[in-house]
Amino acid sequence: MGGDRGDGADPAGTPSRTPRTGRPRAASGARRGSTGSTREDILDAAAELFTTLGFTRTSTRALGEAAGVRQATLYYHFAGKDELLAELLDATVRPSLDLAERLVAAAEALASPAVRLHALARFDADLLGRSRWNVGALYLLPEARAEQHAGFWARRERLVSAYRTLARAAAPERAGAALDDPVAAAVPMAVVESVIQQRSLAGEGTPLALADACLRAVGVAPEDVAALEPASAAVLAALAPGR
């Protein structure tokens, strides 16, 4: 799990920090399920504690203990809890936004709007559902509304816009007018994000099921949804081969 890709400043948010080699771990040893990366282990510990205890109740001491590092090591990699939250929030939206903007820009030669919407929904649901901790729920935290997280909200709004664009293009003519309503146009992304509340019920087939439901929500007939699933998989294989 991670945050910004590459180095330098994000146009919609705060500058990314260059990862550094960590100091020695605490004597308690590595985190259970360690990735071997001190930075990633700290992020994983933050994801666990923020989603189970809450942001306010999680201390940096508890984060260090959960990650198996000294507090000094934690501060060597991150300025504090706010930066950890920022990276975790970004990890829930940035990969899907990268794909979404490529899908919106793609021509019909790649795939129909319905196929592209299905591919986005499938990828996004998988991203939110497969993480070890339910990090998708972090945007509901009051602390996520703080000014330092404005970049996350700007990127999330761009993702919302991409969903709306593809949904309007994918909808049959009889349903397209209804999607001019902002609330109706937001339904496809809301369907996908329902995986956050359904984590205990989610399984391997959940991303596909939610992508299908996303298309049905914009008026695509069930038999047409089933027919385009292979094309959606092909688009993801081409644009997101490492997912």
Structural descriptors:
disordered N terminus, DNA-binding transcription factor activity, 243 residues, 11 helices
- What is the CA-atom radius of gyration, in angstroms? 19 Å
Structural category:
mainly alpha
Work out the helicity level: 55-70%
Q: Beta-strand percentage?
A: under 5%
CA-CA gap between termini: 13 Å
Sheet with the most strands? none
Q: Rough shape?
A: elongated
Order of helices and strands: HHHHHHHHHHH
Low-confidence stretches: 1-27
Number of strands: 0
Count up the helices: 11
Chain-averaged pLDDT: 85
InterPro entries: Homeodomain-like_sf, HTH-type_TetR-like_transc_reg, HTH_TetR
GO molecular function, one term: DNA-binding transcription factor activity
Domain HTH tetR-type: 36-96
Protein name: AcrR family transcriptional regulator
Explain how this protein is built.
The chain is built from eleven helices and no strands. By secondary structure, it is mainly alpha-helical. It has a domain at 90-239. α4 (81-105) runs parallel beside α6, α5 crosses α11 (222-239) and α10 (206-217) crosses α11. The chain is elongated, with a radius of gyration of 19 Å. Residues 1-27 have low confidence and may be disordered.
